């Protein structure tokens, strides 16, 4: 049903066209059901290093494009200079130390959080991450002429609010089982803060910025779920 969306936002073999992907952006929250399925299954197994295997399974499903975006975003963010200098650093094909550091921190935080969070936290994290992409595109402040602009130009209010409704429905559904689900939505604040940082530094959002928002939101959601499920961690 959403093969075009699946073809673009996952590594699952599927055929799709960008024009149809742009019409299916409202279904991004639903995609979390698919992308978190294998990681959740692995987390339920009582096997060694299941947290690492679950994260590998996640990235095998969604690909590394957002992680790459985080690296580029971090390089641009840490570059000293005006918007042009920062943008040039972000688009440099060579990953700098800031990008490497950001990727390592995000991976370590996710693995650590998965050890303490309930198995379904990976679904909540993916749900928040996917909705943060929708939030990023709804800003309608493109940086350059890339795919982010392509999707921003085609995302209308109807798509956004349908996606928002699906997001709320899925969060509430899990909340009937565990109220952690509702509180995990606070990770979107971190996503919104990342969007603001991007706008302050680059005056717009491109694919790298959107990818960074998705990665940071997912990581924040997992860390939040881990803390909420283990209150003694902060005492």
From TrEMBL:
Which protein family is named in the record? Belongs to the CobS family.
Its main localization is membrane
Gene Ontology biological process terms, A to Z: cobalamin biosynthetic process
Q: According to Swiss-Prot or TrEMBL, what is its membrane topology? A: Multi-pass membrane protein
Q: Which molecular-function annotations from GO does this UniProt entry contain? A: adenosylcobinamide-GDP ribazoletransferase activity; cobalamin 5'-phosphate synthase activity
The organism's taxonomy opens as: Archaea, Methanobacteriati, Methanobacteriota, Archaeoglobi, Archaeoglobales
Mind telling me what this protein is named? Adenosylcobinamide-GDP ribazoletransferase
EC? 2.7.8.26
